[in-house]
Write a structure and sequence with these properties.
single chain, about 375 residues, alpha/beta, Aspartate Aminotransferase, domain 1, 2 domains, 7-stranded mixed beta sheet, 10 helices, 10 strands, about 40% helix, binds pyridoxal-5'-phosphate, PyrdxlP-dep_Trfase, iron-sulfur
């Protein structure tokens, strides 16, 4: 990793500024190589959320600019991460008053595992479809989406396609050019990199009208002084994650299998993670009807196990997971949801301990009953 001790503004026209610029550009080159993109396609941002916003808003307004006001349909499933759901809702709301939103939301249908039902999608048309967006892997269930299929359809129709790959990058092989999407979002803290560092890959021919105005850094998409230290840390973490990916996948798959077999033996348990159809190896999303999700995580917390009821990104908000309800799970069942994730710090002993605790924790939570 480059010496990033005293990096100044990479836009500075002095020696230390030029050094900072070199560090930033080396990181860009490394990220591009690791993700199958060109150097010019790599834009550093401050989070996965920011990358998603820049892409979906940028492509939506880019569609208006290049294809006219009739390009107003945005295709997205309700099971997306809030970084997408909230952005699409905002674009499709009546922002200026007067009853005339600029975009319409076309909800992408999903099956009971949360995967987009590709055969039920409407025919895409460049004149009316502004943008389609889909996550590569769901942050709650870990289930993979048919993003390559969707990318092919979007490209054939000339409709821009954004992939939220925040959960995938560093955990699955990602080749941006082979995938063929217009843009792709990633987040460094998801693959062991620094917090508040994101990546947006954007094809050169993607028409992106950035909602960020300013000094025009990062191809004019992400104005603001760049962060060379963060970029270098992001590149180094991605390189490490990619080199350990296969071994880590095998290790975590064993953990997942073990936990799923313990869950499967608990009466009435529901399993939403679907390894047979393709899923991230470190995710287990399940539900125990009759138990309150909050009771499950509190009991596990007391035993020293960190878990959540749903999206960790919106933890603290006590409500049924929008991902599970979007998959058709009844609210009373979704309230008993438990999401467990394993990563590089998880050991076989941790998993054994969890497996021995879980049946008793579910019994206790069920005995405590549901909050009214
Ligand atoms: N998209 C997905 C699928 C995520 O899982 C997350 C965060 O967990 C985000 C977007 C947001 O990323 P960040 O936390 O970097 O803003």
């Amino acid at each position: 990793m480059a010496d990033t001790g005293m990096l100044l503004n990479p836009a500075g026209q002095y020696a230390s500024g030029r050094h900072a610029q070199r560090v930033l550009e080396d990181a860009r080159e490394q990220v591009a190589e690791l993700l199958g993109a060109d150097r010019a396609e790599v834009i550093f941002t401050a989070s996965g959320t920011e990358s998603d916003n820049l892409a979906v808003q940028g492509l939506a307004y880019g569609a208006k600019k290049s294809r006219g006001p009739a390009a107003r349909r945005i295709h997205a499933a309700t099971t997306e991460h809030p970084a997408i759901v909230e952005t699409v809702d905002w674009l499709c709301s009546d922002l200026m008053g007067g009853g005339a939103p600029q975009f319409d939301h076309s909800e992408m249908p999903v099956d009971e595992k949360g995967r987009v039902r590709v055969s039920e999608l409407p025919e895409l048309e460049a004149s009316v479809d502004a943008v389609m967006t889909c996550m590569w892997a769901n942050n709650e269930t870990g289930n993979l989406q048919p993003v390559a299929d969707l990318a092919g359809r979007a490209a054939a129709a000339g409709v821009p396609f954004h992939v939220d790959a925040v959960q995938a990058v560093g955990h699955l092989p990602v080749d941006f050019h082979a995938l063929g999407s217009s843009t792709l979002a990633a987040s460094a803290h998801k693959f062991g990199g620094p917090k508040s560092m994101g990546i947006l890959l954007a094809r050169r021919d993607a028409v992106l009208v950035s909602p960020l105005r300013g000094g025009g850094q990062e191809r004019g998409v992400r104005s603001g002084t760049a962060n060379p230290q963060g970029a270098a840390g992001t590149a180094a973490a991605l390189a490490a994650a990619v080199s350990e990916m296969e071994e880590e996948r095998r290790r975590l798959s064993v953990f997942r299998k073990k936990v799923l077999s313990v869950v499967g033996a608990i009466p009435q348990s529901q399993i939403y993670t679907d390894p047979s159809g393709g899923a991230l190896p470190g995710h287990v999303h399940v539900a125990f009807p009759g138990a309150e999700g909050d009771s499950l995580i509190m009991l596990l917390d007391v035993a020293g196990v960190d878990a959540s009821t749903g999206s960790a990104c919106s933890a603290g908000v006590n409500r049924a997971s929008h991902v599970l309800t979007g998959m058709g799970v009844p609210v009373e069942v979704a309230r008993g949801a438990l999401r467990l994730t394993f990563g590089t710090a998880t050991t076989a002993d941790d998993v054994d301990r969890l497996c021995s605790l879980l049946p008793g924790v579910v019994d206790q939570a069920r005995a405590a009953g549901m909050a009214s």
